Write the structure tokens for this entry.
Amino acid sequence: MNPKPSTRSVLISRRQVLASAIAGLAAAPLSSHAQNFPVRPIRLVVPFPPGGPTDLLARIVATRLGEQLGQAVIIDNKPGASGMVGAEFVARAVPDGYTLLVNASIHVINPSLYANPRYDAIADFEPVGNLADVPLVLAVNPKVAARSVKELVGLAKSANPPLAFASAGNATSQHLSGEAFKIAAQVDMLHIPYKGSAPALTDLIGGQVQLMFDSMPSAMPFIKSGAIRPLAVTTARRSTALPDVPTVA
């Protein structure tokens, strides 16, 4: 699948950088037995690997949903193609309410970037609800000689080869935040996409990449342990979770 090189896709992508997570349900009327729903376990499809922010959120939802419905809610991780593997699986599932999608902003970004996705991100899904607004944090490997955004920009301007930044995949909020940072700071950096936040964080900790924009929920354990160093948050004001970390601006 090749990205469409259009001005419109860039504008939409930048607007969606900090979009919140959404949940989708394959669109179609339920059967006449809907009043007895659910009579069997529900599958919650997460289009990213275990351990990332979408996966963590889905597991919280699955636990509470199972308690309220009296049925097991099973997490099914189907990573790949920037979330499109899992989304396509749900789009093609029997529309009986037993297969749901928990996705991130990438769900509404992908149609603007890929010419021929094998599903319609709007028509093939029925929105159920907004689950969370998840801020991002800019973090670096502790060996990177930068303790502020200003120092990171200076380092990036002089780096040869360019610094490498990780993301959870092409067109994810992590990727687009990195690209927006490059434009704002007028620096060149190499983007390394992964199949989710968890493997990206692993390489950030290991030093294979130097920096990453990641969601706070998945990054916080490694920030607290000192495995990665936070430089800034993407919120308008400082986060109560990281009160000593300034905003990117």
Remarks:
- The chain has two domains: 7-132, 136-233.
- The chain has eight helices and ten strands.
- The helical segments are 7-15, 53-69, 84-91, 106-113, 149-158, 173-185, 197-206, 216-225.
- Strands lie at 21-26, 42-46, 73-77, 99-103, 125-132, 136-140, 163-167, 189-193, 211-215, 229-233.
